[in-house]
Amino acid sequence: MKVISESFLRELFRKEIPETFRVEEGQILTPSAAQLLGERGVKIIRDEDRASEKLPEVRETAGDIPEPQYVVAGGGMLTSKPEHMTQLRGNCLVAKDHVRIILRGRLDSLQSEILLVQGKAHGSGLTNLVRDLGDVLAQARAVMRAEVLEEPLPEGLIMGLGAAELRAQSHHPKQYFGVDHLLPSFTMGEMLLTLNALRSLVREVEVAAVSAFRAEFGSERPDIIQALNRMSSAVYIMMLREATGRYR
């Protein structure tokens, strides 16, 4: 095989992840494949590097060589964590502008924004809206946990609605709320405009997740992508409830 791709490695590692992976002379390891090996803690061994093994051995005492503490995604090990890097998982380091780290930052910002909207709703006496926003906050936290720990994301309810119900109500407001789709306008009122801004932010986080988990023929985390999509539907339903006076 001339080119070693990420998809080839994922299929190869489906049953077992080795400690080392050999790249023969003349083979090309794609950047995404190299990153995957680093993330999985697999040491890359290249045939062209073997010549260096014939160099005279430099003997040093164990105390002279610090024990590596971190694995760098894409290859290499470090004894300490540089300021421009952070942990992707365990002791695996990536740059802070890695797509997964960007997603985590967006999820953190989303949670902060939900809390601000909750505070505004509480100040306006909209108890039921505060409760519904709490469901969205819980889902955002569940997404964050599933991403960081690389666990499956359990299906959760928002406002007592499952994924199919959220999609149905947000796509057919006339049937459920007796109104057409809302067209954002400055005349909507402060709470509706605030909810609309939150809905837009959820969509931006969804795009970041698509980028973070893009695979060659789909997504590595369709559960997270769907959860974020349904969260934006949930916030839109909140807008419809507010517009039709159901929170008042």
TrEMBL record:
Keyword ATP-binding recorded: yes
InterPro entries recorded: AdoTrfase_EutT, CblAdoTrfase-like, CblAdoTrfase-like_sf
UniProt keyword annotations, A-Z: ATP-binding, Nucleotide-binding, Transferase
Matches recorded under Pfam families: Cob_adeno_trans
The Cobalamin adenosyltransferase-like domain, residue ranges: 81-240
Entry protein name: Cobalamin adenosyltransferase-like domain-containing protein
